[in-house]
User: Fold these one by one.
Assistant:
Number 1:
Amino acid sequence: MLTVRHRSTRRLDVGLTLGPLGHGPADPTFHRAADGTVWRTSLLRTGPVTQRFVPAGPHEVVVHLWGDGSREAAESLPVLLGEDDDTTGFAPPPQVRDANRRGAGMRMPYSGRVLEALVPAVLEQRVQTVTAHRAWRWLVRRYGSPAPGPEPDGVRGGLRVVPDARTWTRVPVWDWHRAGVDPGRARTVARCALVAPRLEEACAMAPGEARARLEKVQGIGVWTSAEAAQRAFGDADAVSVGDFHLPAAVGWALSGERTDDDGMLRLLAPYAPHRHRVVRLLMLDGRHKAPRRGPKLPIADYRAF
């Protein structure tokens, strides 16, 4: 076990910062314990790693690391925890000033792992979140590897490390079906995995150029590239255009009316380059949800097709 004590000059809320890297309450690569400890696994260039983040004060966290990727992960801890997240000039809208105060330790995480961010984003395309989380959990448990280090309490089956790119390309069609993933999304994951080295290069690019690189893959549009950029690149300005619920939520919060994607972008325009930060604060606040209209959409289960 490698232990690193990270001290920041600003407030640091590990749970809020790393929260977007988890995909559902039973994600086998991510676990948040009741005491605030956060567990996370990743597959780095030097190998797999398990990280346990133990808050040690408003500006400090102790991180325990296991696995061949421990030293590489230790070196990248500052960027993962958002030390490069620059909030200079950010003036939050009045609707989220209280959330901004309460979430002062929230940073934009920078995982630097593009495929790890892209695959769950692809699985979340055009389906309900619960369906996508179920598919991610099933695939990682079947094709991922056991995480190095101890198992956290309360995680059935232990933590897992995501499959590598080669493994993603070899998932057979019947297992995509068993996971509840339609052929279109399955093909998109395979395409991403086939060009994974080129996609990982996007971490060294400017935000717009990086997203353009991702969108060169057939099946990756502006919504998916934004979801990946928010996590892999720590992009505080990447807005998830095309989201089913987001425009209504942002419109209701900032103007008191529902809106569409164009209206959402107009409302968020004054806050660039912090538009995604504003969205995260709106979601953190929780008081500005647009009233529902009509019945919920039924959950499509592709396993039954």
Note: DSSP finds 15 helices and seven strands in the chain.
Number 2:
Amino acid sequence: MGWPTFAPALLLITLSLALSWKPLPLHPAWSARILAVCGVSTALAVLSTTLLVAAVFITGLLPRDVVSGWGSRGALLLDHGPVSLHLGLMAVVLLMVGLFGIARLGLGVRKDIRAVRGDSQYITEQDHPIALAVPGQHGGVLVSRGLMRLLNREELQVVFRHEHAHLRHRHHVYSTLTALSAALFPPLRTLHQSLRLALERWADEDTAAITGNRELVARTIARVALASPKPRTSWHLALADSHALHRVRALLGKAPSANPVAGPALLGGTGVASSGIASSCFQLHHLYVLVLL
């Protein structure tokens, strides 16, 4: 098993880390989409490569006559061998840790959603300023009594419009997908954090465009951020849960370009390139063998 087996995954890891290290000079809506595509593609590439290495390693531990009895499937796995002990064990451990992380995150998100929905009355009666978007058929925007007291009418409108922007654009889907990708492959946590910032900036710009007052949105975020406690859950998108200073500075500047040409072009190019590289990790040149099994 040579370096070409690992090249696609390494290329996508490098691309994802580069995009998460320095924000793209695009509207946050396009940045968020590109980060999500890269994160998911990288996770799939790492998963498929790890599965292949682990399968070849385990196959190498079995008697050759047993593997030969599998027919084309066994020959396909033997063709990729041998795999060293250290590399094989590393692949098995990485696979187990990644799958455990995905299962743990999935259960945690489900538990958090139930807890937030079940404690909705408790949250709204809090004296701390809290505002968060709860996705789903029975979701909506939760605002605490403390927030109602803290903000005036115009600022409260900013809060509701910001949270509705999260729900309207289904930002929880982007966040959940990259969170699962980071659970599978921990180095993608930086990309997940960059995506969360892009989602918040996306909602900020939507709100600023609707209100026509960027300073009002910036002031509201600053006031809520200074008075808000630490978020109770890790899955929801709240008004001021992260990067508040960066967002306020951005809102006090000029509105970003909508990038009607560059945005779709870069998203399309990134999607085609990353999906093409990720698909190569599935060894598509052997697909005809798997179909015949």
Note: The chain has one domain: 3-292.
